[in-house]
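Appendix B. Worked example

We walk through a single record from start to finish. Start with the input: the chain for Putative multidrug export ATP-binding/permease protein, Candidatus Ordinivivax streblomastigis, length 573.
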Amino acid sequence: MNGKTIIKEIKSKNSASNSYVFVQTLAAIGTTLLTVLLIYLYGTHKITPEKMLFIGAGVVLLQAAKAIVGAVGIWRAHRAAYGALTDIRLSIIQHLKKLPLGFFQRRRPGELSDIIHHDVEQIELYLAHTQPEIVGTMLIALLITGAMFIIDWRLALCMLAPVPLAAGLLILLFTKIWTKRLKQYNQSTKEMSEDLMEYVAVIPTIKAFSTEEHKTEALITRVKDYTKNSAQQMLGISAPNGVVQMIMEAGVLLVAFVGMELIVHQDFGITRFILALMLSLAFAQAVLKFMGYEHALILLNRCAANIASITGESPAPDYPTKPLVSSDITFDHVTFSYDEREQALHDVNVVFKRGTVNAIVGASGSGKSTIANLILGFWLPGAGRVSIGDRDVSTINERDLTGLISIVQQESFLFNTSIAENIGIGRAGAGREEIIEAAKKACIHDLIESLPNGYDTVIGEGGVKLSGGEKQRIAIARVLLKNTPVIILDEATAAIDPYNEHLIQQAITNLSRGKTLIVIAHHLSSITGANQIVVMDKGKVIAVGKHDDLRENCPLYAEMVQMQNEVDSWNIK
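Next comes the structure step. The output line below is what the pipeline stores for this chain.
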C-alpha cells in the first residue's frame, strides 16, 4: 500500500462528518445575515419590536443548532479518527507479522516505534480537526463568494483578485520550503527519539566508564538540533502566512475603495457596502485559514509515506508446506553483502550434515553470524544457493522454516511475564509438565523452584532479576520445548561466567542429542569434539575439518587455538 492509497483511505474515513460541518456553516452564516439585517433595519428606521423578536429568536435557534450539530460533528469526527488509528495500527501490526525477518534487521526499533506512534497519531489530528475545518472553511468561502456576486459582481471580483497570486506563491514557492523544513524536522525527531531510547538503555554502561558527560553532551546537541529544526519549521510556516495575509488583506482594501467609489458615483447603499466589507473580511480570513492547511496536508503526506514504508514492504512468500527429504544444510557458492557494501560472504561452499555437531570459528566480522542469518532466511544470498534438504531456503515459508530451526543468541530476550510463559513460547499449548521437563534439561529447574512463585514468578517484578547465564538457560529450555531438528547457537556462552558456562554446556549437551547443531564459537575449547569445524576469514571459508586436523593444517586455526590457550592461562601478576 503506497502513500497515496493510504491518504485516500484516511480521507474516506470521515466523509460522514462533512454533512455536520455543512449544517454548522450554514447556521453560522445565517447568524451573520440576521445580524446584518438587524443593522439594516436600524439604519433605515424600519425596526419594530416584532421584527426584533423574530430576528433574536432566529439568532438563538441558529446558535443552538450550530452548537448541537457542532458537538455531534466533533464526536463523530473523533470517533472516526480514533477508529482509523486503530485500523491503521492493527494493519501495520498484521503486516509486520508477515514481513521477512531481515526487514527488522534493516530498521531500527526507535524508527518503527516512531512511525506506529507519532506518524499514525497525526492522522487523528487530520481527521478530527483539520479535515472538518477544511470542509467548513471551503463552504464559507464559496457561500461568501455567491453572496458577494448577489450584492455586486464588481466587488466580488475585487475580493477574488488576490486569490490567484496568494495561491500561486503558496504552491510554487512556499510548499517547497515547507516540504524541505518538514523533512529536516522529521529526521531530527526520529534521531532524537532513537538517541533517547539508546541513552536510557545504556546508562549503566555510560556511568561505569565515566562517559556520562560526553554522552550527555551528545544527547543535548541532538535535542538542540531538534529545537533548531522545530524553530525553522515554524518560521517556514509563519513567514509565508504573513505574506499571504498581506495579499489577501489588499483585497479587502480594494473592496473598500471600489465600494466607496460606487457610493459616491452611483446609487449604492451604505448597508450593502457594510455587508460587502464584512463579507470580504470573512472571505480573506477563510482563505488564509484554508491556505494554512497546506502545511497540514504536507505533514499528512509525509506521515502516510512513512507508514507506507512499512505497509509497502513485500511480505514473505507463503509457499506451500512440503516435507523435507533431509535436514542437511548446504551452502552452494554463496555470496552475500549487506546494502551493497563489502561482501560479507564470498563463494562459500559448506555442508552441515544432519545429526552432526558443527562449529564456525573466525575473527569478528569474518561472516560467522551471516551464515546463521542466511540459514534462518533473514536474508537471501546475492549469488549461489542455501538449501535445507532438497529445498532452497527462499522457497520454504517462514512458518515451516522456524519449525525446522531454533536459535540461542548471545543475548536472549525474555518477556516481562512469568517464567513458565517465557519457556512456553517454545511451543504453543505446551503443558506445565513439559515446561518443567524442558527446564530440568536446561539445568534451570532448581533455580526456578527457589524463586518466590516458582514457575509463576514474573521476571522483573518484585525485584526478581536474572543473570545473563540464567536467561540463557531459560532460552535453552524454550528451544528444548520447541524440539526442532536444527539448532544454532550464536556465541551463546561468549559473556558467561564459568559456573553458568558449565551449566549451559550441560544444557547444550541435552539440547543437541539427535539434532543438527551449528555453534558459532567464541571459546574454542568448547568445540574440540565437533564433527566439523568451519574456519572463516574475511567472508571466506578457508578450511573445514576436525580440531586436530585443523591445528596441523590450518595456520589461522592453530593461531586462534594458541591465543585461546594464552587467554585461558593468563593471570594477574
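Two observations about the output. The radius of gyration is 35 Å. The domain at 3-311 is CATH 1.20.1560.10 (ABC transporter transmembrane region fold).
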